[in-house]
Amino acid sequence: MTHAPAGHINRRVILFILSLAVLIAQVDTSVVNLAVHAIGVGLHAPLPALQWVVGGYNLSYAALLMTGGTLADLLGRRRVLQAGAAVFVLGSLLAGLAPNITALIAGRVLAGIGAALLLPASLALIRVIWADPHERAHAIGVWAGTNGAALAIGPTLGGWLIQTTGWRSVFLLIVPIGVAVLWWAPRAIPESHDTRGRRVDLPGQMVGGLLLAALAVAAIVHRFMCPALAVALLAALLFVRAERRAGSGAMIPLPLLGNARLAAVNGVAAAMTFGMYGVLFLLPLSWLRGGVLDATGAGLALLPMSLAFVALSHRSGSWSVRFGTRRLTAGGMALIGAGLAVLAFTHAGQRLWLTEAGLLLTGVGMALNTGPVLASAVAAVEPARAGTVSAMVNTARMVGATLGVGVLGAVYAAAGNAASGFGKAMGIGSVVIFAGAMLAWTMLVDSE
Questions:
Q1: Which residues, 6+ apart, have CB-to-CB distance to 422 below 8 Å?
Q2: Pairwise CA distance, residues 230 & 214, whole Å
Q3: What is the DSSP-derived secondary structure letter of residue 193?
Q4: Max CA distance (Å), the chain
Q5: In 10 A of CB 384, how many CB atoms?
Q6: CA 140, 314, 359: angle at the middle one, nearest 5?
Q7: 3-class DSSP state for residue 409?
Q8: Are the CB atoms for 151 and 306 separated by under 8 Å?
Q9: Considering only CA atoms, which of 117, 26, 110, 125 is closest in space to residue 64?
Q10: Taking the CA of residue 66 as centre, how many other CA atoms within 13 Å lie in the half-sphere pointing to its CB?
Q11: pLDDT tens string for the chain (448 positions)?
Q12: pTM of the predicted model, to two decimals?
């Protein structure tokens, strides 16, 4: 076991590098939704292929997120951070230079693998390098705040880039930032690892990846829905068996799989991203396809949601103490659901004032909900399992995102009319999120 040394390191520089690692993953996620229309036109790609551009990244990220954390502990957190940056750069280059939609999707899958290595390693390094709890809390706050900054920067910058230099630039933009992380990390960040009781659960990883892939195929490729669902069910049964046989070395120990409160938290997290990623995929696509806004205008029009999230998310901790985690989580979900219900009546985003009102509601709801969901997950288990459940809830978020883009995108495409399809998709998303609000209200407790 090795840990980062206490002295002779510049923590400000380290935090800046780790924040860059988060930034490249989150900016990439937020800008690609603006680029899907231009990608479809440029590469002559149909809607299901565009769904895989978004879903491929989310799927590979979700499938490998938990293993990424284990690899960081086993092989070295800095080393895995560098590997994640390298893979992300390669994926971004492949996407930005892709001659066809197949190569672009492959690049996105590769970038998702990079993100699954980057993010757990960066958070683990903060846990090791900042030994003082108060200093660590500040560092984590800065690290997490980069997510909010990416939400504000990504759509605006991405819209401008698409409008001025083309869709390829949103992927190539990431490359120099990733290279900077690669070059800087070994010069500034001390290595650390901890192999005690840790090993890669290869059977669990393989079967779990198959389960997630089958769900994604069922959501996006309709003609394979029934076979894919059958494969997903079989994979779920095999996953439980594999985790039982792995015992203490399981990727997700069986007691966590049987924890009702944790299952509820994961359900709430998945419901939220199911609706929100559906919005972020379909709304810019509808604006651009319908000629309502250009790419720059679409990026600016998403700002009310992003700015509401950035402005209020840092208050969720104190509000959870004051009002209770259950109330804040359920209330935030209800606001998101109301926002999607409003969007359903915007005629595919053409009624801009009403669209902005819906986006503002969703941004406020996300700000109230995101922090308490993670806090609820950690509070549902003993402290020794905090890292595992944090990875679980983030995996649930990515699974919800993948299914949301797939299912709501399919509803949108099947309607034949953009306004009707968008309204139905937002209506379904709203129902799912309100179901998540009810789950939070009935299963979570305020004493967390």
A1: 282, 283, 286, 343, 344, 346, 347, 348, 349, 412
A2: 9
A3: B
A4: 63
A5: 7
A6: 120
A7: helix
A8: yes
A9: 117
A10: 30
A11: 555 444 467 888 888 888 888 888 878 777 888 888 889 999 999 888 888 898 888 888 888 887 887 788 778 888 989 999 999 999 999 999 999 999 999 999 999 999 988 888 887 787 778 777 677 767 776 776 677 677 777 777 888 888 888 999 989 988 999 999 999 988 888 887 666 666 777 788 888 888 888 888 887 776 667 888 888 899 889 988 888 887 767 777 777 777 888 888 889 989 999 999 899 889 988 998 888 888 888 888 988 888 888 788 777 767 777 887 888 889 999 999 999 999 999 998 899 999 999 999 998 998 888 777 777 776 676 655 656 677 788 788 888 988 898 889 889 988 878 889 999 999 999 999 999 999 989 887 664 4
A12: 0.81
Q: Are 72 and 121 in contact (CB under 8 A)?
A: yes
Q: Rounded to the nearest 5°, which phi and psi values hold at 171?
A: -85, -40
Q: Which alpha helices (DSSP H) does 44-132 contain, by range? A: 47-75, 77-96, 101-129
Q: Output b/e per residue, 140-156; b: 16+ Cβ within 10 A.
A: eeebbebbbbbbbbbbb
Q: Extract the tokens encoding 22.
A: 């988060």
Locus of tokens 């209506």? 427
| Contact indicator for 349, 426 with CB cutoff of 8 Å | no
State how far the Cα of 148 lies from the Cα of 169, in Å rounded to an integer. Answer: 22
For 206, what's the count of Cα atoms within 13 Å in the CB-facing half-sphere? Answer: 6
Tokens of 301: 């029009």
Amino acid found at 384: A
Q: Are 185 and 17 in contact (CB under 8 A)?
A: yes
Helix (H, G, I), strand (E, B) or coil at 440: helix
The two tokens of residue 83 are 């590997």
Q: Which residues of 183-200 are buried (b: 16+ CB within 10 A; e: fewer)?
A: ebbeebbbbbbbeeeeee
Nearest one of 243, 238, 273, 272 to 258, comparing CA atoms: 243
Q: Residue 314 and residue 312: Cα distance in Å, rounded?
A: 6
> Phi first, then psi: what are they for 198, rounded to 5°?
-115, 140
361, with CB counted inside 10 A (0-12, 13-18, 19+), is: buried
